[in-house]
Design brief:
5-stranded mixed beta sheet, about 130 residues, single chain, two-stranded antiparallel ribbon, 5 helices, alpha+beta
Length: about 130
């Protein structure tokens, strides 16, 4: 399979990703917090999830903390791992879930840790898929 076809397939899988993220501060003010995805759909973000996040993020960072939390799934040598590249997101996951594993400055999750996070942040987190072509 050539790289362009693979890139298109991954893009199709990730069409649920937001067109533009919003700040935690902004979403806490919204009556019905939603995010518009690249596919044009509006996704509702549950208020209880936003409130849970706000309990673990310093209020001074609310306007810099972007929603959704991006969980980047990668396949490395046949093993799937999840990276949290955003520093504020990584700090939040460390505080809220006690996961501290960093690889080259990036928080790394194993697949068995993902369900715990996704159950608690069903609407406020999104999984994207990346494939290394190297």
């Amino acid at each position: 399979m050539n790289e362009r076809i693979l890139a298109r397939m991954i893009e199709a899988v990730n069409k649920h990703m937001p067109e533009k993220s919003k700040s935690l501060k902004q979403m806490l003010k919204e009556k019905d917090p939603t995010i518009r995805a690249k596919d044009g759909n509006e996704y509702y973000i549950e208020r209880k999830e936003l409130e849970f996040i706000s309990q673990h993020v310093d209020e001074l960072d609310w306007d810099r903390f972007r929603i959704p939390i991006i969980l980047e799934m990668n396949d490395i040598g046949g093993e799937r791992v999840v990276y949290v590249r955003d520093k504020l997101h990584a700090d939040f996951i460390r505080k809220a879930f006690g996961i501290k594993r960093k690889v080259k400055g990036t928080l790394m999750l194993y697949m068995y840790e993902l369900p715990k996070i996704r159950r608690r942040l069903r609407t406020a987190s999104q999984v994207i898929f990346r494939v290394s072509l190297k």
